[in-house]
Design a protein that fits this description.
421 residues; 10 helices; alpha+beta; single chain; 9-stranded mixed beta sheet; 26% helix
Protein backbone atom coordinates (compact mmCIF):
# COMPACT_ATOMS: atom_id res chain seq x y z
CA UNK A 1 0.00 0.00 0.00
CA UNK A 2 1.34 3.39 -0.92
CA UNK A 3 1.91 5.85 1.87
CA UNK A 4 0.28 9.26 1.83
CA UNK A 5 3.00 11.80 2.36
CA UNK A 6 2.60 14.66 4.71
CA UNK A 7 4.22 18.08 4.93
CA UNK A 8 4.08 19.55 8.37
CA UNK A 9 4.76 23.22 8.47
CA UNK A 10 6.32 25.10 11.25
CA UNK A 11 5.26 26.30 14.66
CA UNK A 12 6.51 29.32 16.60
CA UNK A 13 6.25 29.08 20.35
CA UNK A 14 6.90 32.06 22.61
CA UNK A 15 7.77 30.68 26.03
CA UNK A 16 8.31 33.33 28.61
CA UNK A 17 9.99 32.82 31.98
CA UNK A 18 10.73 34.89 35.06
CA UNK A 19 13.18 34.25 37.83
CA UNK A 20 11.44 36.40 40.41
CA UNK A 21 11.36 35.24 44.00
CA UNK A 22 8.17 33.60 45.15
CA UNK A 23 7.49 36.57 47.44
CA UNK A 24 7.37 38.85 44.41
CA UNK A 25 4.92 36.69 42.49
CA UNK A 26 1.43 38.09 42.05
CA UNK A 27 -1.37 36.31 43.85
CA UNK A 28 -3.18 33.67 41.79
CA UNK A 29 -6.15 35.00 39.88
CA UNK A 30 -9.25 32.84 40.17
CA UNK A 31 -11.12 33.03 36.88
CA UNK A 32 -12.28 30.78 34.07
CA UNK A 33 -9.84 30.27 31.21
CA UNK A 34 -10.90 31.55 27.83
CA UNK A 35 -10.98 28.65 25.41
CA UNK A 36 -12.60 30.25 22.39
CA UNK A 37 -12.29 27.94 19.39
CA UNK A 38 -13.33 29.34 16.03
CA UNK A 39 -12.97 27.24 12.91
CA UNK A 40 -11.17 28.84 10.00
CA UNK A 41 -13.61 29.64 7.19
CA UNK A 42 -11.73 28.74 3.99
CA UNK A 43 -11.80 30.95 0.89
CA UNK A 44 -10.70 30.08 -2.65
CA UNK A 45 -9.17 33.50 -3.36
CA UNK A 46 -7.28 36.22 -1.50
CA UNK A 47 -8.98 39.57 -1.99
CA UNK A 48 -6.69 42.29 -0.68
CA UNK A 49 -6.81 46.05 -0.41
CA UNK A 50 -3.89 47.98 -1.91
CA UNK A 51 -2.43 48.44 1.57
CA UNK A 52 -2.76 44.74 2.38
CA UNK A 53 -1.16 43.78 -0.94
CA UNK A 54 1.78 46.05 -0.16
CA UNK A 55 2.09 44.37 3.23
CA UNK A 56 1.93 40.89 1.69
CA UNK A 57 4.74 41.87 -0.66
CA UNK A 58 6.71 42.96 2.39
CA UNK A 59 5.96 39.66 4.12
CA UNK A 60 7.45 37.60 1.30
CA UNK A 61 10.56 39.80 1.37
CA UNK A 62 10.81 39.14 5.11
CA UNK A 63 10.50 35.40 4.58
CA UNK A 64 13.44 35.32 2.15
CA UNK A 65 15.44 37.68 4.38
CA UNK A 66 14.70 35.39 7.33
CA UNK A 67 16.19 32.43 5.44
CA UNK A 68 19.24 34.54 4.42
CA UNK A 69 19.89 35.61 8.01
CA UNK A 70 19.49 32.07 9.36
CA UNK A 71 22.28 30.93 7.03
CA UNK A 72 24.45 33.97 7.75
CA UNK A 73 24.15 33.25 11.47
CA UNK A 74 26.02 30.02 10.82
CA UNK A 75 23.15 27.82 11.88
CA UNK A 76 24.17 25.21 9.28
CA UNK A 77 27.63 24.81 10.80
CA UNK A 78 26.46 22.02 13.09
CA UNK A 79 24.33 18.91 12.54
CA UNK A 80 25.85 17.86 9.22
CA UNK A 81 25.88 21.32 7.65
CA UNK A 82 22.18 21.51 6.77
CA UNK A 83 19.51 24.04 7.66
CA UNK A 84 15.70 24.00 7.51
CA UNK A 85 13.39 26.84 8.50
CA UNK A 86 9.75 27.70 7.92
CA UNK A 87 9.45 31.41 7.13
CA UNK A 88 5.64 31.21 6.90
CA UNK A 89 5.33 29.82 10.40
CA UNK A 90 7.78 32.42 11.66
CA UNK A 91 5.69 35.24 10.18
CA UNK A 92 2.40 33.87 11.54
CA UNK A 93 3.88 33.23 14.97
CA UNK A 94 5.37 36.72 15.05
CA UNK A 95 1.90 38.02 14.22
CA UNK A 96 0.53 36.24 17.30
CA UNK A 97 3.37 37.72 19.32
CA UNK A 98 2.63 41.20 17.95
CA UNK A 99 -0.90 40.87 19.33
CA UNK A 100 0.41 39.84 22.75
CA UNK A 101 3.58 41.81 23.53
CA UNK A 102 4.40 45.40 24.37
CA UNK A 103 3.77 48.27 21.96
CA UNK A 104 7.51 48.55 21.24
CA UNK A 105 7.79 44.87 20.34
CA UNK A 106 4.61 45.10 18.27
CA UNK A 107 6.07 48.00 16.29
CA UNK A 108 9.29 46.05 15.69
CA UNK A 109 7.41 43.00 14.43
CA UNK A 110 5.07 45.02 12.19
CA UNK A 111 8.09 46.74 10.66
CA UNK A 112 10.01 43.46 10.24
CA UNK A 113 7.07 41.89 8.40
CA UNK A 114 6.70 44.85 6.04
CA UNK A 115 3.37 46.29 7.22
CA UNK A 116 2.29 49.80 8.14
CA UNK A 117 0.36 48.89 11.28
CA UNK A 118 -0.94 45.97 13.31
CA UNK A 119 -4.44 46.22 11.83
CA UNK A 120 -3.16 45.64 8.30
CA UNK A 121 -0.95 42.78 9.51
CA UNK A 122 -3.91 41.14 11.22
CA UNK A 123 -6.36 41.37 8.31
CA UNK A 124 -3.74 40.14 5.84
CA UNK A 125 -2.66 37.22 8.05
CA UNK A 126 -6.32 36.29 8.48
CA UNK A 127 -6.87 36.20 4.71
CA UNK A 128 -3.70 34.17 4.12
CA UNK A 129 -4.77 31.61 6.72
CA UNK A 130 -8.26 31.31 5.23
CA UNK A 131 -6.87 30.81 1.70
CA UNK A 132 -4.35 28.21 2.82
CA UNK A 133 -7.22 26.25 4.37
CA UNK A 134 -8.97 25.82 1.00
CA UNK A 135 -8.40 22.21 -0.18
CA UNK A 136 -9.25 22.98 -3.82
CA UNK A 137 -6.55 25.65 -3.93
CA UNK A 138 -3.88 23.89 -1.93
CA UNK A 139 -4.58 20.44 -3.37
CA UNK A 140 -4.51 18.65 -0.04
CA UNK A 141 -4.98 19.12 3.68
CA UNK A 142 -3.42 22.13 5.32
CA UNK A 143 -4.19 23.10 8.88
CA UNK A 144 -2.98 26.15 10.76
CA UNK A 145 -3.53 26.31 14.51
CA UNK A 146 -2.64 28.87 17.17
CA UNK A 147 -2.94 28.79 20.93
CA UNK A 148 -1.90 30.83 23.94
CA UNK A 149 -1.23 29.29 27.35
CA UNK A 150 -0.71 31.53 30.37
CA UNK A 151 0.04 31.02 34.05
CA UNK A 152 -2.91 31.10 36.39
CA UNK A 153 -0.97 33.64 38.45
CA UNK A 154 -2.06 36.24 35.91
CA UNK A 155 -5.28 37.67 34.51
CA UNK A 156 -5.87 37.85 30.75
CA UNK A 157 -8.69 40.03 29.47
CA UNK A 158 -11.66 38.69 27.57
CA UNK A 159 -11.02 41.37 24.91
CA UNK A 160 -7.58 39.87 24.24
CA UNK A 161 -8.96 36.35 24.01
CA UNK A 162 -11.73 37.51 21.64
CA UNK A 163 -9.26 39.39 19.43
CA UNK A 164 -6.79 36.55 18.90
CA UNK A 165 -9.68 34.13 18.36
CA UNK A 166 -11.33 36.28 15.69
CA UNK A 167 -8.13 37.37 13.93
CA UNK A 168 -5.84 34.33 14.28
CA UNK A 169 -8.29 31.61 15.35
CA UNK A 170 -6.21 31.15 18.49
CA UNK A 171 -7.27 29.49 21.72
CA UNK A 172 -6.39 31.21 25.00
CA UNK A 173 -5.88 28.76 27.87
CA UNK A 174 -5.18 29.33 31.55
CA UNK A 175 -2.99 26.62 33.08
CA UNK A 176 -1.16 25.80 36.30
CA UNK A 177 2.45 26.45 35.35
CA UNK A 178 3.62 25.05 38.69
CA UNK A 179 2.22 21.63 37.75
CA UNK A 180 4.24 19.42 35.39
CA UNK A 181 0.94 18.05 34.06
CA UNK A 182 0.74 21.25 32.01
CA UNK A 183 3.71 19.89 30.03
CA UNK A 184 1.57 16.94 28.97
CA UNK A 185 -1.35 19.21 28.03
CA UNK A 186 0.82 21.34 25.75
CA UNK A 187 2.62 18.39 24.18
CA UNK A 188 -0.73 16.68 23.56
CA UNK A 189 -1.99 19.83 21.83
CA UNK A 190 1.12 19.94 19.63
CA UNK A 191 0.79 16.26 18.80
CA UNK A 192 -2.87 16.62 17.84
CA UNK A 193 -2.26 19.65 15.61
CA UNK A 194 0.71 18.01 13.87
CA UNK A 195 -1.05 14.66 13.36
CA UNK A 196 1.31 12.96 15.80
CA UNK A 197 4.46 14.11 14.03
CA UNK A 198 5.64 16.24 16.96
CA UNK A 199 4.44 14.47 20.12
CA UNK A 200 7.03 15.83 22.57
CA UNK A 201 8.13 19.33 21.68
CA UNK A 202 8.83 20.22 25.31
CA UNK A 203 11.44 17.90 26.80
CA UNK A 204 11.01 19.24 30.31
CA UNK A 205 8.95 21.71 32.29
CA UNK A 206 10.12 25.08 33.62
CA UNK A 207 7.69 26.44 36.25
CA UNK A 208 9.10 29.97 35.89
CA UNK A 209 7.47 30.42 32.47
CA UNK A 210 4.53 32.78 32.46
CA UNK A 211 3.13 32.44 28.93
CA UNK A 212 3.49 30.22 25.86
CA UNK A 213 2.33 31.19 22.36
CA UNK A 214 1.97 28.37 19.82
CA UNK A 215 1.57 28.21 16.06
CA UNK A 216 1.45 25.02 13.97
CA UNK A 217 0.99 24.30 10.27
CA UNK A 218 0.02 20.89 8.88
CA UNK A 219 -0.05 20.05 5.16
CA UNK A 220 -0.72 16.67 3.54
CA UNK A 221 -0.19 16.24 -0.17
CA UNK A 222 1.54 14.35 -2.95
CA UNK A 223 3.77 15.33 -5.86
CA UNK A 224 1.88 16.20 -9.03
CA UNK A 225 4.11 13.88 -11.06
CA UNK A 226 5.64 11.37 -8.67
CA UNK A 227 8.98 9.65 -9.15
CA UNK A 228 9.05 5.99 -10.20
CA UNK A 229 10.26 3.91 -7.27
CA UNK A 230 11.66 1.28 -9.64
CA UNK A 231 14.00 3.90 -11.15
CA UNK A 232 15.58 4.84 -7.81
CA UNK A 233 19.21 3.74 -7.57
CA UNK A 234 22.33 4.38 -5.51
CA UNK A 235 24.51 7.28 -6.62
CA UNK A 236 27.24 9.43 -5.10
CA UNK A 237 26.43 12.76 -3.46
CA UNK A 238 29.42 15.10 -3.27
CA UNK A 239 28.67 17.06 -0.12
CA UNK A 240 30.48 19.96 1.43
CA UNK A 241 32.21 17.62 3.88
CA UNK A 242 32.78 14.60 1.63
CA UNK A 243 31.22 11.98 -0.63
CA UNK A 244 28.32 9.77 0.41
CA UNK A 245 26.22 7.09 -1.31
CA UNK A 246 22.53 8.04 -1.45
CA UNK A 247 19.32 6.67 -2.97
CA UNK A 248 18.75 8.89 -6.02
CA UNK A 249 15.23 9.19 -7.46
CA UNK A 250 14.84 9.53 -11.23
CA UNK A 251 12.30 11.08 -13.61
CA UNK A 252 12.10 12.03 -17.29
CA UNK A 253 9.80 14.76 -18.64
CA UNK A 254 7.66 14.79 -15.50
CA UNK A 255 8.75 18.00 -13.88
CA UNK A 256 9.49 21.63 -14.72
CA UNK A 257 12.75 23.46 -15.33
CA UNK A 258 13.56 27.03 -14.36
CA UNK A 259 16.80 28.89 -14.92
CA UNK A 260 18.56 32.07 -13.91
CA UNK A 261 22.13 33.31 -13.92
CA UNK A 262 22.43 31.87 -10.42
CA UNK A 263 21.09 28.34 -10.66
CA UNK A 264 19.34 25.55 -12.52
CA UNK A 265 16.01 25.01 -10.81
CA UNK A 266 13.80 21.93 -10.55
CA UNK A 267 10.09 22.67 -10.10
CA UNK A 268 7.71 19.98 -8.81
CA UNK A 269 4.15 21.17 -8.19
CA UNK A 270 1.99 19.65 -5.52
CA UNK A 271 -1.64 19.02 -6.47
CA UNK A 272 -2.86 22.60 -6.03
CA UNK A 273 -1.14 25.97 -5.92
CA UNK A 274 1.96 25.05 -3.88
CA UNK A 275 5.23 23.92 -5.47
CA UNK A 276 8.64 22.57 -4.54
CA UNK A 277 11.71 24.29 -5.99
CA UNK A 278 15.25 22.88 -5.72
CA UNK A 279 18.11 25.16 -6.78
CA UNK A 280 21.37 23.70 -8.10
CA UNK A 281 23.92 26.55 -8.14
CA UNK A 282 25.75 27.26 -11.38
CA UNK A 283 29.53 27.39 -11.71
CA UNK A 284 30.95 30.25 -9.70
CA UNK A 285 28.31 30.01 -6.98
CA UNK A 286 27.98 27.81 -3.90
CA UNK A 287 24.78 26.72 -2.23
CA UNK A 288 25.71 28.52 0.99
CA UNK A 289 26.53 31.79 -0.80
CA UNK A 290 23.26 31.58 -2.72
CA UNK A 291 21.30 30.84 0.45
CA UNK A 292 22.80 33.90 2.12
CA UNK A 293 21.73 36.25 -0.66
CA UNK A 294 18.74 34.89 -2.60
CA UNK A 295 15.77 37.25 -2.57
CA UNK A 296 12.16 37.12 -3.63
CA UNK A 297 13.18 39.19 -6.65
CA UNK A 298 15.65 36.44 -7.65
CA UNK A 299 12.93 33.82 -7.19
CA UNK A 300 10.46 35.83 -9.28
CA UNK A 301 13.10 36.20 -12.00
CA UNK A 302 13.64 32.49 -12.49
CA UNK A 303 9.93 31.67 -12.18
CA UNK A 304 9.26 33.90 -15.19
CA UNK A 305 11.62 31.64 -17.19
CA UNK A 306 9.63 28.46 -16.47
CA UNK A 307 10.03 25.66 -19.04
CA UNK A 308 7.93 22.46 -18.79
CA UNK A 309 10.01 19.32 -18.91
CA UNK A 310 7.93 17.62 -21.60
CA UNK A 311 8.05 20.04 -24.53
CA UNK A 312 9.10 18.66 -27.91
CA UNK A 313 12.52 20.30 -28.01
CA UNK A 314 13.45 19.77 -24.39
CA UNK A 315 13.86 16.50 -22.55
CA UNK A 316 14.34 17.00 -18.82
CA UNK A 317 16.08 14.19 -16.95
CA UNK A 318 16.13 14.56 -13.17
CA UNK A 319 18.07 12.76 -10.47
CA UNK A 320 17.11 13.90 -6.99
CA UNK A 321 18.07 12.33 -3.66
CA UNK A 322 15.79 10.74 -1.13
CA UNK A 323 16.90 12.11 2.20
CA UNK A 324 16.04 12.92 5.78
CA UNK A 325 17.24 15.91 7.76
CA UNK A 326 16.88 16.67 11.47
CA UNK A 327 17.73 20.09 12.85
CA UNK A 328 17.66 22.17 16.01
CA UNK A 329 18.26 25.89 15.47
CA UNK A 330 18.68 28.80 17.88
CA UNK A 331 16.81 31.62 16.13
CA UNK A 332 17.33 34.44 18.62
CA UNK A 333 20.41 35.74 16.72
CA UNK A 334 18.32 35.81 13.53
CA UNK A 335 15.40 37.78 14.99
CA UNK A 336 17.79 40.12 16.79
CA UNK A 337 19.68 40.80 13.55
CA UNK A 338 16.37 41.56 11.84
CA UNK A 339 15.37 44.12 14.47
CA UNK A 340 13.49 42.30 17.25
CA UNK A 341 14.41 43.26 20.81
CA UNK A 342 15.62 40.57 23.17
CA UNK A 343 13.45 41.94 25.98
CA UNK A 344 9.71 42.53 26.09
CA UNK A 345 6.58 41.96 28.12
CA UNK A 346 3.10 40.59 27.38
CA UNK A 347 1.20 43.74 28.24
CA UNK A 348 -1.48 43.17 25.59
CA UNK A 349 -2.34 40.01 27.54
CA UNK A 350 -2.33 41.98 30.78
CA UNK A 351 1.08 40.59 31.85
CA UNK A 352 3.34 43.60 32.41
CA UNK A 353 6.58 41.93 33.37
CA UNK A 354 9.79 42.38 31.39
CA UNK A 355 11.57 39.18 30.34
CA UNK A 356 14.49 38.30 28.09
CA UNK A 357 13.44 36.40 24.96
CA UNK A 358 15.15 33.44 23.27
CA UNK A 359 14.06 31.19 20.41
CA UNK A 360 14.77 27.60 19.32
CA UNK A 361 13.39 25.62 16.37
CA UNK A 362 13.39 21.83 15.95
CA UNK A 363 12.54 20.25 12.60
CA UNK A 364 12.40 16.98 10.65
CA UNK A 365 12.30 16.60 6.85
CA UNK A 366 11.87 13.53 4.63
CA UNK A 367 11.66 13.51 0.82
CA UNK A 368 11.01 10.48 -1.38
CA UNK A 369 9.23 9.29 -4.54
CA UNK A 370 5.70 10.23 -3.49
CA UNK A 371 6.15 13.50 -1.67
CA UNK A 372 7.45 15.42 1.31
CA UNK A 373 7.13 14.87 5.04
CA UNK A 374 8.13 17.80 7.19
CA UNK A 375 7.66 18.76 10.83
CA UNK A 376 8.93 21.73 12.80
CA UNK A 377 8.24 23.33 16.16
CA UNK A 378 9.78 26.64 17.16
CA UNK A 379 9.91 27.88 20.72
CA UNK A 380 10.63 31.35 22.08
CA UNK A 381 11.03 31.64 25.80
CA UNK A 382 12.28 34.24 28.24
CA UNK A 383 13.73 34.75 31.67
CA UNK A 384 16.34 36.79 33.43
CA UNK A 385 20.02 36.24 32.59
CA UNK A 386 19.23 33.73 30.28
CA UNK A 387 18.99 24.25 -26.58
CA UNK A 388 16.75 22.29 -29.25
CA UNK A 389 16.79 18.51 -29.31
CA UNK A 390 19.06 18.36 -26.31
CA UNK A 391 18.85 16.64 -23.00
CA UNK A 392 19.00 18.65 -19.82
CA UNK A 393 20.06 16.60 -16.84
CA UNK A 394 19.74 17.91 -13.31
CA UNK A 395 21.65 15.69 -10.94
CA UNK A 396 21.45 16.94 -7.40
CA UNK A 397 24.69 15.30 -6.32
CA UNK A 398 26.15 18.34 -4.60
CA UNK A 399 24.90 21.03 -2.19
CA UNK A 400 21.61 22.67 -3.16
CA UNK A 401 18.78 24.85 -1.86
CA UNK A 402 15.05 24.22 -1.83
CA UNK A 403 11.83 26.14 -1.23
CA UNK A 404 8.22 25.07 -0.86
CA UNK A 405 6.21 28.03 -2.11
CA UNK A 406 2.64 29.21 -2.44
CA UNK A 407 2.72 32.15 -4.83
CA UNK A 408 -0.95 33.04 -4.42
CA UNK A 409 -0.46 33.55 -0.69
CA UNK A 410 3.03 35.05 -1.15
CA UNK A 411 4.28 32.50 1.37
CA UNK A 412 7.40 30.39 1.84
CA UNK A 413 6.15 27.28 3.62
CA UNK A 414 9.64 25.82 3.93
CA UNK A 415 13.19 26.75 2.93
CA UNK A 416 16.37 24.73 3.21
CA UNK A 417 20.08 24.41 2.46
CA UNK A 418 21.41 20.85 2.01
CA UNK A 419 25.18 20.67 2.22
CA UNK A 420 25.51 17.01 3.17
CA UNK A 421 23.32 13.92 3.07
Amino acid sequence: MKTRYILIGAALFAMVSCDKNASDDPAPVQEDRYTIIRDISATDAIELTAEEQSGLDGKIDFEFDFFNEAVKAGLQDSDNGNIIVSPLSASLALTLMANSCSDNTTAEIVRMLGFEDLGLLNTTANKVMRYLHCPSMIGGQLGIANSVWYSDRYSVSRDYADRIASVLYSECNKADFQDEATLDLINEWCSEKTNGMIPDFLDGWDPTRIAILLNTIYFAGLWDGRFDEDATRDMDFFGRDGKATVSMMHSENLHGYLESDLADVLCIPFKGTSSFFALLPKEGHTATELAETISYSDYHDFVTRYTPGNVNDFKLIVDFPKFKVSKALPLSPVFSKMGLSTMSDFSKMGIKEDVDLATLQKSELEIDEEGVKFAVVTGSWGGHDRPKTVEKRLTFDRPFLFFIMNDDARSVLLAGLVNNI
